[in-house]
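A student in our group prepared the protein record below, which I am reviewing. I have pasted the whole thing underneath without changing anything:
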Amino acid sequence: MIVLMAVIAPNFWSLSNGFNVARAVSINAVLAAGMTVVILTGGIDLSVGSIIGVAGVSSVLLWNSGAPAVVAVVGGILVGAAAGLLNGLLVAYLALPAFIVTLGALTYLRGTAYALTDGQPLIAEGQLGFRLLGNGNFAAIPSPVLVMVITYVVVWFILERTTFGRHVYAVGGNVEAARLAGIKVKSVLLRVYLLAGFTAGLAGVMFAARVESGQPRAGEGYELDAIAAVVLGGTSLFGGRGRIYGTFVGALIIGVLSNGLVLMNVPFFTQLIIKGAVIVVAVALDSLKNWRAR
């Protein structure tokens, strides 16, 4: 795939394009990190794309109101975490289907983003104080890439080195067995959706910093890219199996694919068809793997 894109689009290997890919991959990769933890429990979160929009808008609103950059960043992330917390409460304690809960959240959170901005992009007043989070560099490394790396190190540690991480895998592997083993399943589910909301909020602030504005449409379709990254990275949609570093590889594949399609001037609707096909094939392979394992 990469060789084909390099032949068709000669500037694919350019340094500037490499930085563009790195920045673009960072946002989806951060989003997919939280999605991985949810899917490991056998759940799904379709609201993360809308959380990007409402979190980004919230951070710029705080900045325009005179809040310090740190407050604007933390505020945007907390908005995302609050949305994830509500999802978790509904899924874990009311036993509502995750698909329905997060599909509803996708809608009302997007509506909230539009309501906060009257349906128009919210331009940052003056220079956005946290713009470096999306456009800056640290020792020649793009800031979003550093944020992404830190996110993956933290999530890796949570999944591989903590009791909570082991419980995530246990719940995804067999929820009834996990419950009989004394694992507080409801608490685990609540925290995984909270984590997904947190990472989506972080991705939203990064997006706002990158474009230096609050875009109510930001994140549309990103939930599909995140799911694709998780599945391509080897995490089973049935839960209980997968590794966070696989998700990073999956996010990189999706980012390179998206960038290559743009450079080849592939129409947007065709890009959606290709991405959708990638997701379907990945899920089909995962289902086949599970069927053979039985």
